[in-house]
Amino acid sequence: MCTRNKKELTTEYLNSKKIDREIRVESSQLQPLKLLLLGSGECGKSTIFKQIISFQDEQTRKEYTPPSDYVIRNIFLNIVTAMNTFIKVAPSYEIEFSEEENQKIETILRVFDDLETLSQSTFTSIADNIKYLWNTKQVQTIYNHPKRIYQLNDSTEYLMNNIDRFSKPFKPSQNDYLRVRVKTTGIVEADFKIEAVPFKLVDVGGQKNQRRKWIHCFQDISAILFVTSINDYDTVLEEDNSTSRFTDSLELFREMVNSGWFTKSPFVVFFNKVDLFKEKIKRIPLSQHLNDFTGNNYSYEETSQFIKNKFHGTITNQNKIVYHHFTCALDSHAIEVVFNSVQHSLLMNVAEVL
Ligand SMILES: Nc1nc2c(ncn2[C@@H]2O[C@H](COP(=O)(O)OP(=O)(O)O)[C@@H](O)[C@H]2O)c(=O)[nH]1
Ligand SMILES: [Mg+2]
């Protein structure tokens, strides 16, 4: 892998190229620069997609940001589903609830059994019960258990801590929108222009059963944005409880970075969810799950570099252009900085061609 030498380009030169581009775009000679987000399920692809859209002009933002009621409904679904998970998994941890707690649980299960009709008023009617249960010793024990035997969205704590705000009619914030989890199915595309150059951003579903659809968008890729959750070293896949998320993501990266489809496409790897990773290494030693790690389990530098090296070690073509960034996809400023540098190197390539 190598880091590309950045050619010195003056503002004047870039501006003249920009005018050239505008003329070419007008005569439709310029193919869009196609950015493809790849990675396993829940690593943060759609969150990065949302962030990139939020950096664009108002028209693009309007076109590709879902309406508030869609976001609100998914916030409710995320919360009720998470609470249902805690309730269902409790017996496996030998956890019991009191008579009074069981009455509250009943009200939640009734709503869970009829999610189609979940609305602000049904949510409001059970919000206090959910909040109460979330704060019980039992649910906190399940949530904080070092051995998690169930699947849970990473935004659960954030959503639970905001229940009071969601329990009456509210306008979702940008943060709510970034945190809410909606599983992507199929292929989602967004078209926009940056400095008169057309871009196409493509997001896909990451679960194994979604991956066979990917091939439909493998043609003419300008850059792959490969996302992996660095926090996932101790968890298993949602769709396959016998496969570690880390191994799955590493193998997926190996396959993609060495694929004949992408021999000319640079890769930008997002080692994502560093916020969660920094907290997790304090509780769950990396060496317990990645046995060949012999460094300091408490050192963020050592553990994160080890994971990065594992990924980079799978690249067979030593001339492949692979950039890497450690990110928290919720951090708009940080993602904007990364995206600007990706966009800048792509625009330089276009400037060179024109
Ligand atoms: N704490 C934290 N949560 C994240 C981060 N990136 C994504 N998430 C959350 O993880 C969940 C799954 O993200 P999503 O973008 O839907 O993953 P996808 O399946 O790869 O598209 C969502 O609830 C996101 O808000 C991150 O860097 N830190
Ligand atoms: Mg997604």
Verbal overview:
The chain has 354 residues and is of the alpha/beta class. The chain has two domains: 11-66 and 184-353, P-loop containing nucleotide triphosphate hydrolases (Rossmann fold, 3-Layer(aba) Sandwich), CATH 3.40.50.300; 68-179, GI Alpha 1, domain 2-like. The chain contains 16 helices and six strands. It has a six-stranded mixed beta sheet with strand order 2-3-1-4-5-6, sandwiched between helices. It is globular. Bound molecules: guanosine-5'-diphosphate (GDP) and magnesium ion. The site of guanosine-5'-diphosphate (GDP) has 23 residues, from α2, α10 and α13. GTP binds at residues 42-47, 154-155, 178-184, 203-207, 272-275, 329. Mg(2+) binds at residues 46, 184. One of its GO terms (biological process) is adenylate cyclase-modulating G protein-coupled receptor signaling pathway.
Number of strands: 6
How far apart, in Å, are the first and last alpha carbons? 26 Å
Low-confidence segments, given as residue ranges, are 1-8
Overall structural domain count? 2
CATH class of the largest domain: Alpha Beta
